Amino acid sequence: MNVDWLKRLRRGARLLLWSQVAAYLLVNVFGALSVFFGQPQAYLTWGVLIHTSASLPGLFGVFALSSRGPRDEPGQCLSEPLRLACGGVAAFGWLLHVAWAVSTLVAGDQHRAAWELSSRIVGVLMVVLVLSRMRQLASTLVAAHLARSFLSVTYAYMALALADYVVFALVLGPDGGGADMFCGWALTGLGVVVWIWGLVLLGRFASRIGTVIAGHCGNCEYDLTGNVSGVCPECGTEARALQGA
Predict the structure, then answer these.
(1) For residue 131, how many C-alpha atoms fall within 13 Å in the half-sphere facing its CB?
(2) Are residue 208 and residue 219 in the same domain, yes or no?
(3) Quick one: pLDDT at residue 241?
(4) What is the pLDDT of residue 183?
(5) Is 108 left (phi over 0), alpha (psi -120 to 50) or beta?
(6) N or C: which end of the chain has fewer CB within 10 A?
(7) Domain identity same for 124 and 221
(8) Count of alpha carbons within 13 angstroms of residue 226, beta-carbon side
């Protein structure tokens, strides 16, 4: 197993995790300050620019997670279409945010609805692809239960995205009033829970990759130094990916 590749995956997971946290905190703190000082328009104008800038390291993280892995070991031939789609859609989504930021600076909020809809559609696709890639990497390199957790958070995110579009686009519309606000806060709260769940999984993946790099089982952290059987003797996990790490 290529240790440099494993280190790249760990670095990518950490970059994606911390850039997401930074983007979320910066955008929300700026939004709160804009409202506090009576300048909500400033948030609408500059919020997307701040988010685009803060999420740039995360784009490099996705690129690292989408990098080509070893293809000469049995079971290590990772899905090429998913790998390419993950990095490609992430790059397109970030460039879309750049274009939105430029448009906002030039034309204000004139085309905000179209930009926001496009960004959300691409964003949902990007998150689903990234989570699918993480499930693929987890099932191939570390613990199967971690891969199942990534699958669960993917389904939860897709369900929330679908509920968001159904509730706001088909049921409530622009004049939903109090119900609109209630559903908005409910979906936002659930979305934050799923978002935190996904970040925790990213952190666990980076930690597990660290144990693999150190020559331990990614599932139970058993020391696999000198193991030639291809199976962890402690928990029975396939250890083929861990040999030579």
Answers:
(1) 24
(2) no
(3) 45
(4) 66
(5) left
(6) N
(7) no
(8) 0
Q: Which domain holds residue 22?
A: 3-213
Residue 244 CB: number of other CB atoms within 10 A?
Answer: 11
User: In this structure, what token pair is assigned to residue 61?
Assistant: 């993280």
Least Cα distance to 48 among 93, 78, 18 occurs for 93
End-to-end distance of the chain based on CA atoms, in angstroms?
A: 6
Per-residue pLDDT at 239 exceeds 60: no
pTM: 0.82
- One domain for residues 110 and 161: yes
8 Å CB contact between 168 and 180 = yes
Same domain, 153 and 241: no
Looking at residue 178, its pLDDT comes to 45
Structure token pair of residue 104: 């906002």
Give residues with Cβ within 8 angstroms of 231, minimum separation 6.
237, 238, 239
Quick: pLDDT tens for 23-66: 989 888 888 888 788 877 777 777 888 888 889 999 999 999 99
Kindly state whether residues 48 and 88 are assigned to the same domain: yes
pLDDT band at 152 (very low <50, low <70, confident <90, very high): very high
* Other C-beta atoms lying within 10 Å of the C-beta of residue 145: 10
Burial of 169 (0-12, 13-18, 19+ CB in 10 A): exposed
Q: Are residues 220 and 165 in the same domain?
A: no
Domain co-membership, 109 together with 220: no
How many domains does the chain divide into? 2
